[in-house]
């Protein structure tokens, strides 16, 4: 599978052991590959609210015939585990996508996301890996007995040692642990259980901080406020979860995992198609909204002039079209909604993408919201009046970005020039050297996004203004 629809996914025997998962996969109109590792830094566009399913872009290394087959089996198993994990995250925010769940408060978003994380890890670690073992009982699928949520040992063993093995019991354990609550792992005295509990406790502690930052960024760009009210709170929008889903996060995830997802096995194709169309419109609405916010807040840099009034008019028209498409969908006019989306995509190519290409437009800044980069509050980009970096902050940004890029002689020379300038007291010379190296194509690819290459009609999207882990 590559960029594009996955509605033609062929039925697989393994998926038959995972009720509802294939139906969930079929509800996604577009998938986006993500390079899981560049040098020592992960590159991800993870954002369930944006409605794009991320797939790892993994290619096995050349090997002998036997080794290649074994590696492909390992890769296929791991990919299914990761895809299912990401898809569960998307299912968990279905209530938000149809206006039933307000995530505008930091506390509410944090609790819902943490509960969803527990559900997604439980499904990948327990439900999917058990199905894989049943399908290939004589094969070691992974070189070590690890999982998505733990690299050292499989968490199922930690829970087994405290007497939990049934899927529903394990779900309770995951939800409690990921929400920072006491669970059966606490005080057992077993080294595996204690180790896993400490790991999840650290995850909970760190995630509360990063989720708070994410909430602030989403608020800054209006995503959980005006965007949600305009593109999600629309009567009649189709969803894969019921309207009576509990309001309490753990209870909601319990119902999704044990009832809503398995129940999708019996979902009719008309519902899946309607949800797919809803995602088509909301993916585009999110993209258009963030592009408009980037322009409004001065987060776009261009090499050549961009006619901003005409550009903003075109973006507003595109957003209007997505809103109309969603209203049509809510009224039951699926075909009219699709026609509106397709017409809007054609206008986007002509009135939005073409001017961005001509102007050589790129994002001027992005937020990096995760514990690995904190010196500037997560804001990485050009050095100007908005960022106003200190020399120490600018040096930290250069080191951070350079770790995400491939090295060569030219880039090393540019970096050396910039670092040398940062050792002087001349702030303007330091700023000029910093921006020169940050805008070099080899460096820019590690932090900025080329806006002219993005095409909704071709399924090419990126998370424009932030990256969250």
Description:
56% of the residues lie in helices and 5% in strands. By secondary structure, the chain is mainly alpha-helical. The chain folds into 3 domains: 261 residues, no CATH class; 90 residues; 81 residues, no CATH class. Strands 6-5-7 form a 3-stranded mixed beta sheet, with helices on one face. Strands 1-2 form a two-stranded parallel sheet. Strands 3-4 form a two-stranded antiparallel ribbon. α5 runs antiparallel to α7 and α14 packs antiparallel against α15. It is globular.
Concise summary:
The protein is mostly helical and 469 residues long.
Tally the helices: what do you get? 17
Shape: globular
Write down the domain tally. Answer: 3
The beta-strand count equals 7
Share of helical residues:
55-70%
Q: Low-confidence parts lasting 5 or more residues at pLDDT below 50?
A: 1-8, 142-146
Strand order of the largest sheet: 6-5-7
Q: If you compute it from the alpha carbons, what radius of gyration comes out, rounded to the nearest whole angstrom?
A: 23 Å
Structural class of the secondary structure composition?
Answer: mainly alpha
Please state the average pLDDT score: 87
Measure the end-to-end span. 24 Å
Task: Report on the biggest sheet.
Answer: 3 strands, mixed
**Strand composition percent:** under 5%
Output the helix-strand order. HHEEHHHHHHHHHEHHEEEHHHHE
Oligomer: single chain
